[in-house]
């Protein structure tokens, strides 16, 4: 096998190991981090660099690894160069619309630096001014209070008009999280971060006459900056739906059984055994990889 083939095989195997949360702290503690960083260097192929960056993103997702990774000078230095040399990344808006312009290496680089940002030194942060601006913009956006707005739209009389209103919400009110329509009642319900004034102006500029029926503010669930971009988006997308709680006797018995001391101890024991087995397997392979470089 050629040297290029050997490198590809090693980095792919590392990515597989790093994708398992159980292995992530083991990989970092075993001192393999500098070797993974070496695969991101420009003399490697784009595929190898992207896989290595994805591996680093997996490792950075574990909270026990973040401070250690932020203190790895070559890691931060290498990713900072990639970030600052990409015009699509190096913008101050933090817009999600530019994701289609980015290759995998760029996306993984942005995600890693965003995750590690709270642990970087002031000097390291100064090398990433646009990332800081992106995070500030995202923080302000996520901290805006969400609210339910119910509107009476005089012109909402047919499904075709309902479809037009839906297009307006999707294209011009992107802070909206969910929405429903009632054509018989001429009613639109929107769960959003956009201000009521902005909603009214948007509908009015598109020829609709609206009046506010209800506007109730909901407390924001975000009170913490420094979370990574992908994680904040996932929180939004995974917002729990309202479902009726089951209260039948069988369900209650199941809950009691699952929450018993014996059941919890058994789950804890099995989980610990599985983690030990996975760590042993990971450690064996990581040791082999380490021997390649040292």
UniProtKB/TrEMBL annotation:
Residues 121-148 form a coiled coil. It comes from the Eukaryota. It is found in: Mitochondrion outer membrane. Its main location: mitochondrion. Keywords: Coiled coil, Membrane, Mitochondrion, Mitochondrion outer membrane. Signal peptide: none annotated. InterPro entries: ARM-like, ARM-type_fold, ARMC1. SUPFAM superfamilies: ARM repeat (SSF48371). GO terms for cellular component: mitochondrial outer membrane. The keyword Mitochondrion applies. The keyword Coiled coil applies. Interacts with mitochondrial contact site and cristae organizing system (MICOS) complex components IMMT/MIC60 and MICOS10/MIC10. Interacts with mitochondrial outer membrane sorting assembly machinery (SAM) complex components SAMM50 and MTX1. In association with mitochondrial contact site and cristae organizing system (MICOS) complex components and mitochondrial outer membrane sorting assembly machinery (SAM) complex components may regulate mitochondrial dynamics playing a role in determining mitochondrial length, distribution and motility. This is Armadillo repeat-containing protein 1.
